[in-house]
C-alpha cells in the first residue's frame, strides 16, 4: 500500500490511482441521483464533477508533482474547444422555441398522428416518436408527451406495456441520436472534434439499419396482436388544431432547413436561418399565440418583437385544454439549455485535469493491450460507453468521458474522429435508458409507469444500435485509416 502511494515525480500516474477520481465521481453521482432524481442535472451532477476534478488535481499535484499551471491550461483548452458547441446549444434552444410556437412542430405532429392504425400500432408509435424527437431534438420531451399518450392508447388496445414502452423509447432515441437539435448529438460531435453535419451523416450507416430492424420487429408484433380499438389520438390532434393554425405552408420551414443542411452550410448558419424562418412565420400564421407570449399588453410592432424574442430565449406555456399537450408545446428557449451548458463546462474541467495529470492516458493504456484492429477499437469504445452509463449514471458524462478517453487511441491507430463520435453515440447515448439507476432509465420508467427491466427487452433499437456499430466496423464499411 505504501508503494502504491509513493511519490513518482514526473511519472505517469498508475492505473490504480487514475481510477480513484472515477470511483469518487461514480459514488457522488449515485448519491446525487438518489437525492435529486431527474433534477440531478440542475446542479448536483455539476458539483460531483467539480469534486472529482478536485480529487484528481490533489492526487496529481501531491503524488506526482504535476504543476497546477498544466492542469489549468488543459481546462482552458477544453473549454475553448467546447465554445462552438455551447453556441450551437443556445441556438438549439432558440430554434426549439420558435419552431414550436410558430406551429411548425404542431403541424408535423398532427400529420404524423394520422398514420396511426391498430394493425401496425407499435411500428407507427415508433415512427411517430422518431419524427417528434427528430424535430424537437429531445427524447425526454417526446417520451413525456406523445409517449405518455401512446402508452394510454396501447393499454386501451391491450398491448403489453413492455412492447409499447419499447417502441416509444426506440423511436425517441432514434430521433434524439440523429437530430441536429439534440444536445447529445452536438455534445458527442464536439467532444470528438467532428463537424456536427458530418457526424450525423456518418451515423446513418449504423442508425438506419438498426431502425429498420426495430421497425420490422414492431410491425410483426403488431400484426400478431389482436387489437381492440384505435384509442383517443384525435383528442390530442384536436387540441393542437384549436391552439395553432395547422397548415401545409408551415412545412416550408423544415424543407428549407433540409435544403440548407443538404448544401452543407455550417451548423451555426443553418440553425440561425432556421430560427429566423420560424420567427418570420410566427406573426403570419400564429398571431394569437404571439399575442399570448407577449402578455397581451403591447400592440403592434412591440408586441410582435416581444413575442418572437420570448420564443427564442424564454419559457413558453400555452393552454391547449389537454394537460399532456400543454407539456408537449411548452418550451424553454435558450434559457432551458443553461443546465446542459453548465454541465458541459464542469465536465470539461474534470476532463482537463484528467488529461493534464496523465490519468486519462494511463486509463487508455488498458485498452492498448487488447485492441489491435479498427473493429476491436470500436468494440472497446462501445463497451466503455455502456460501462460509463453503469458507473456514472448520467448520459452526458458518459458521452464526454468515452470521447475523451478514446480520442488519443483513435488518433494513434490512424482512425477517423467521426468513427469515434459514431461509436460514442451508438453506445453512450442509446444505452443510458436501459440502466435503471441512470438518470435516463429512472426518468423514463417513472414517466411511462413501466419498470426499466420490463421495457428493456423490447427497446430493440437501443440494443441493436451498439451491436450494429461493431458489426459495421467488422465489415470495414466506410472506414478509412489516415496515413
Instruction: Provide mean pLDDT, rounded.
Output: 81
Globally, the shape reads globular
Assembly of the depicted chains = single chain
* Relative helix content: over 70%
Order of helices and strands: HHHHHHHHHHHHHHHHHHHHHHHH
Secondary structural class: mainly alpha
The description of the largest β-sheet is:
none
> Compute the gyration radius: what is it?
23 Å
Q: State which percent range the strand residues make up.
A: under 5%
How many helix segments?
A: 24
Could you name the ranges where pLDDT drops below 50 across 5 or more consecutive residues?
1-9, 227-231
The tally of beta strands, per DSSP, is: 0
Distance between the termini: 44 Å
Properties at a glance:
disordered N terminus, 24 helices, 483 residues, 73% helix, mainly alpha
Spell out the blueprint of helices and strands.
Blueprint: H1 15-36, H2 44-64, H3 68-81, H4 83-101, H5 104-113, H6 121-136, H7 139-156, H8 161-178, H9 183-191, H10 196-223, H11 233-243, H12 252-262, H13 267-285, H14 287-293, H15 300-313, H16 323-329, H17 338-356, H18 359-368, H19 374-392, H20 395-412, H21 417-431, H22 439-448, H23 452-455, H24 460-475
Helix pairs in contact: 1-2, 1-18, 2-17, 3-17, 4-9, 4-13, 4-15, 5-6, 5-11, 6-7, 6-8, 6-10, 7-8, 7-16, 7-22, 8-10, 9-20, 9-21, 10-21, 10-24, 12-13, 13-14, 13-15, 14-15, 17-20, 18-20, 19-20, 19-21, 19-24, 20-21, 21-24
Short account of what is shown:
With 483 residues, the protein is mainly α. The chain has helices spanning 15-36, 44-64, 68-81, 83-101, 104-113, 121-136, 139-156, 161-178, 183-191, 196-223, 233-243, 252-262, 267-285, 287-293, 300-313, 323-329, 338-356, 359-368, 374-392, 395-412, 417-431, 439-448, 452-455, 460-475.
Amino acid at each position: 500500500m505504501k508503494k502504491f502511494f509513493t511519490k513518482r515525480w514526473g511519472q505517469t500516474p498508475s492505473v490504480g490511482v487514475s481510477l480513484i477520481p472515477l470511483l469518487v465521481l461514480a459514488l457522488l453521482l449515485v448519491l446525487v441521483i438518489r437525492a435529486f432524481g431527474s433534477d440531478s442535472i440542475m446542479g448536483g451532477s455539476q458539483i460531483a464533477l467539480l469534486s472529482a476534478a478536485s480529487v484528481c488535481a490533489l492526487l496529481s499535484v501531491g503524488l506526482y508533482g504535476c504543476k497546477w499551471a498544466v492542469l489549468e491550461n488543459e481546462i482552458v483548452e477544453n473549454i475553448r474547444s467546447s465554445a462552438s458547441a455551447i453556441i450551437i446549444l443556445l441556438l438549439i434552444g432558440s430554434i426549439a422555441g420558435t419552431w414550436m410556437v410558430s406551429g411548425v412542430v404542431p403541424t408535423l405532429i398532427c400529420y404524423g398522428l394520422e398514420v396511426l392504425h391498430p394493425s401496425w400500432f407499435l411500428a407507427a408509435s415508433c415512427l411517430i416518436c422518431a419524427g417528434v424527437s427528430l424535430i424537437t431534438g429531445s427524447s425526454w420531451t417526446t417520451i413525456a408527451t406523445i409517449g405518455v399518450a401512446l402508452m394510454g392508447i396501447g393499454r386501451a388496445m391491450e398491448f403489453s406495456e413492455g412492447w409499447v414502452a419499447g417502441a416509444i423509447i426506440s423511436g425517441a432515441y432514434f430521433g434524439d441520436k440523429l437530430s441536429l437539435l439534440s444536445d447529445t448529438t452536438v455534445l458527442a460531435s464536439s467532444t470528438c472534434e467532428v463537424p456536427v453535419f458530418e457526424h450525423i451523416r456518418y451515423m446513418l450507416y449504423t442508425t438506419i439499419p438498426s431502425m429498420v430492424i426495430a421497425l420490422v420487429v414492431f410491425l410483426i408484433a403488431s400484426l400478431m396482436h389482436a387489437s381492440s380499438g384505435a384509442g383517443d389520438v384525435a383528442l390530442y390532434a384536436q387540441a393542437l388544431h384549436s391552439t395553432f393554425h395547422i397548415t401545409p405552408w408551415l412545412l416550408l420551414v423544415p424543407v428549407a432547413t433540409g435544403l440548407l443542411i443538404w448544401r452543407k452550410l455550417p451548423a451555426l448558419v443553418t440553425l440561425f436561418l432556421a430560427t429566423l424562418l420560424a420567427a418570420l412565420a410566427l406573426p403570419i400564421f400564429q398571431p394569437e399565440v404571439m399575442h399570448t407570449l407577449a402578455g397581451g399588453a403591447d400592440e403592434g410592432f412591440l408586441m410582435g418583437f416581444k413575442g418572437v424574442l420570448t420564443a427564442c430565449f424564454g419559457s413558453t406555456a400555452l393552454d391547449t385544454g389537454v394537460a399532456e399537450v400543454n407539456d408537449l408545446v411548452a418550451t424553454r428557449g435558450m434559457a432551458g439549455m443553461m443546465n446542459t451548458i453548465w454541465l458541459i463546462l464542469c465536465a470539461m474541467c474534470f476532463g482537463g485535469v484528467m488529461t493534464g495529470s496523465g490519468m486519462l492516458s494511463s486509463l487508455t493504456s488498458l485498452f492498448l493491450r487488447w485492441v489491435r484492429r479498427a473493429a476491436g477499437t470500436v468494440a472497446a469504445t462501445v463497451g466503455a460507453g455502456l460501462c460509463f452509463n453503469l458507473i456514472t449514471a448520467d448520459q452526458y458524462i458518459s458521452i464526454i468521458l468515452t470521447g475523451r478517453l478514446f480520442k488519443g487511441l483513435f488518433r494513434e491507430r490512424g482512425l477517423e474522429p467521426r468513427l469515434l463520435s459514431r461509436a460514442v453515440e451508438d453506445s453512450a447515448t442509446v444505452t443510458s435508458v436501459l440502466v435503471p439507476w441512470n438518470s435516463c432509465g429512472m426518468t423514463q420508467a417513472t414517466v411511462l409507469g413501466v419498470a426499466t427491466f420490463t421495457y428493456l427487452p423490447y427497446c430493440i433499437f437501443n440494443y441493436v444500435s451498439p451491436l450494429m456499430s461493431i458489426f459495421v466496423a467488422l465489415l470495414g464499411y466506410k472506414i478509412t485509416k489516415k496515413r
